[in-house]
Design a protein that fits this description.
Elements (H helix, E strand, L loop, with lengths): L4 E5 L11 H15 L3 E7 L11 E2 L4 E3 L6 E9 L6 E6 L1 H4 L11 H19 L5 E5 L5 H8 L10 E6 L7 E2 L2 H5 L13 E2 L2 E3 H8 L2 E4 L2 H6 L10 H6 L4 E3 L27 H13 L10 E8 L5 H14 L3 E8 L1 H13 L4 E5 L3 H10 L2 E4 L9 H7 L3 E5 L2 H6 L12 E3 L4 H17 L1 H13 L5 H19 L6
Parallel strand pairs: 1-2, 1-7, 2-6, 7-8, 8-12, 12-13, 14-15, 14-17, 15-16, 17-18, 18-19
Antiparallel strand pairs: 3-5, 4-5, 5-6, 9-11, 10-11
Helix pairs in contact: 1-17, 4-6, 9-12, 10-11, 10-15
The structure holds adenosine-5'-diphosphate and alpha-D-glucopyranose (GLC).
The site of alpha-D-glucopyranose has 14 residues, from helix 1.
Length: 489
């Protein structure tokens, strides 16, 4: 096998900085690809909020970055991903990344990530480490393939293939025209079949046109985004590049997300001995001021409270549900102020039955996964979704809408002898209500069936090994497309 040099470029990465599942994915995949024998490295901006886990050292030379009228200067920090030898680089630039937010609402947001793309390429040259493939993630890295194709083609790094992974079509990185000069892109690229979209630069679209190959994080999402109703306005580009688009399901970091060893839990448990799960439930009930009652099931939520996740559907019907069903809710999330307010109102109105923590809390997220009987995810769209996989591993039955990766990871109860959760189709509160009702009925009336579903879910293999091998194949595919030479597998 030819050892490939692979660089992952990302705006989030566990355990250093996390907003959502992108961080989980990029924290885990590089280690698995390295385990296959490849030379894998990762690069991420250094935000004011980044946690400096492990041993860090600053590279001695400053990094000159080709952006704007006079180049910018950055500094590089180096560490490794925990429990691995995978080098992780962090780009420090006080003005753009010194602030705590990963994504900021300010006008300079696209410029921050344009600088990050150029800095990444400069770092490779400075390290004299030219990757065979650069694996980019989401819009923040969208200009990197354009830079390679247009301004660096005659440099060694210009031979690097690019794989671009779509984690979410809803965020496209729209930017004013001024970014063309700032990122030092040729003026001619400002056209509809490259980086332009409706009078702006669209960084996601740019990547879709320029990357050697495109992946997304589940097979079903790969189909959905080619359709008019699922492509967020870029479905035509994905149909155009359809032969280069692949869906590879995310895995789970099974060492980190394991109820048998999870240190965040008050008690551990396994499929053969679930006693610890009851302790987790009691702790969760106490933690969120729910009535501590072993008989009533807790249904959990852990999510960004944004339109995509559909939790407004739960927020608006939660009263109706707890008035009619014997169930408690444990909610963790933040985002849309209206949805946050609805959940807070429900807590006040239904004390002991609805508990919520508005905020981000990694430890509580794990307690909810472990202490709940079911996990609610009414997503309108879900490229992959990791939390339903965590739920399955923790013996917690997912109640999910039939979309994206949720379809690829949860099997409906109706499929006799195979079910691991409850799936509903329509994105409305009536359909969600029915699914929750179905879950409650199973919990109370058919505990043996519940238990069988639980054990089936806990036994599903979501480890990264399969997907990492598919990414390695995809890297070879991209290299062949870029260079005409196929690396030995
Ligand atoms: P997305 O990336 O769209 O947010 P995923 O299901 O892929 O959805 O990943 C979400 C990740 O973020 C999971 O690891 C989940 O536990 C975590 N998470 C989401 N909201 C919170 C929160 N409020 N507190 C702690 N962890 C959270
Ligand atoms: C995005 C998606 C989510 C996916 C995650 C990791 O944030 O919303 O569905 O699991 O990326 O790929």
């Amino acid at each position: 096998m030819q050892r490939l040099k692979v660089l992952l470029v990302t705006s989030e990465m566990e355990p250093f900085v996390k907003v959502g599942g992108l961080a989980d994915m990029v924290g885990a995949l590089p280690k698995e690809v390295a385990a296959l024998g490849h030379d894998v490295r990762v690069v991420c901006p250094l935000y004011g909020s980044t946690k400096r886990v492990g041993t860090w050292s600053a590279r001695p030379e400053p990094l000159g970055v080709d952006v704007g009228a006079q180049a910018a200067w950055a500094r590089t920090w180096e560490t490794t991903l925990p429990d691995s030898a995978v080098p992780a680089y962090f780009i420090e630039h006080e003005q753009y990344f010194g602030r705590p937010e990963v994504y900021s609402e300010t006008d300079d947001n696209p410029f921050r990530f344009a600088l990050f793309c150029r800095a990444t390429l400069a770092l490779c040259e400075q390290l004299d480490w030219i990757p065979d493939v650069i694996h980019c993630h989401d819009w923040t890295t969208g200009l990197l393939p354009v830079m390679l194709n247009t301004t660096l083609r005659d440099k060694p790094i210009g031979n690097a293939a690019t794989v671009f992974t779509i984690h979410n079509m809803e965020h496209q990185g729209l930017s004013p025209h001024a970014i063309v000069d700032y990122a030092r892109l040729p003026a001619a690229e400002y056209r509809g079949d490259s980086i332009e979209s409706m009078g702006q630069v669209n960084m996601l679209k740019a990547a879709l046109y320029h990357a050697s190959k495109i992946t997304t994080v589940s097979p079903t999402y790969a189909e959905e985004i080619r359709r008019r109703d699922g492509g967020c306005g870029l479905d035509h580009v994905l149909r155009f590049r359809g032969a280069d688009l692949l869906g590879i399901l995310n895995g789970v970091d099974t060492a980190s997300w394991d109820p048998a060893t999870d240190k965040a839990l008050p008690a551990n448990y396994t499929a053969t001995d679930l006693a610890g799960k009851a302790t987790c439930k009691a702790t969760l009930q106490a933690r969120l001021d729910l009535t501590v009652d072993a008989k009533v099931p807790v249904f959990g939520v852990v999510a960004r409270l944004v339109h995509q996740k559909g939790l407004d559907l739960l927020a608006e019907s939660i009263g109706h549900i707890v008035e009619r069903m014997k169930v408690q809710f444990a909610v963790l999330g933040s985002g849309d102020a209206r949805v946050e307010a609805e959940f807070k109102k429900a807590v006040a109105r239904y004390p002991g039955r609805v508990g919520a923590h508005i905020g981000f809390d990694g430890k509580l997220a794990r307690l909810i996964q472990a202490g709940s009987a079911a996990f609610v995810m009414p997503s309108r769209a879900e490229p992959c979704g990791l939390t339903q996989m965590y739920a399955l591993r923790y013996g917690t039955l997912p109640i999910v809408r039939a979309t994206g990766g949720l379809v690829d990871t949860v099997v409906d109860q109706g499929e006799q002898g195979r079910g691991t959760g409850f799936i509903f189709r329509e994105a409305n509160s009536a359909a969600l209500y029915q699914a929750i009702g179905r879950a409650c009925a199973t919990y109370y009336d058919r505990p043996d069936e519940w238990r069988a579903m639980q054990l089936r879910g806990m036994a599903v293999d979501f480890s990264w090994a399969n997907s990492a091998a598919r990414y390695a194949d995809c890297y070879r595919w991209a290299i062949t497309a870029r260079t005409g030479i196929t690396p030995e597998a």
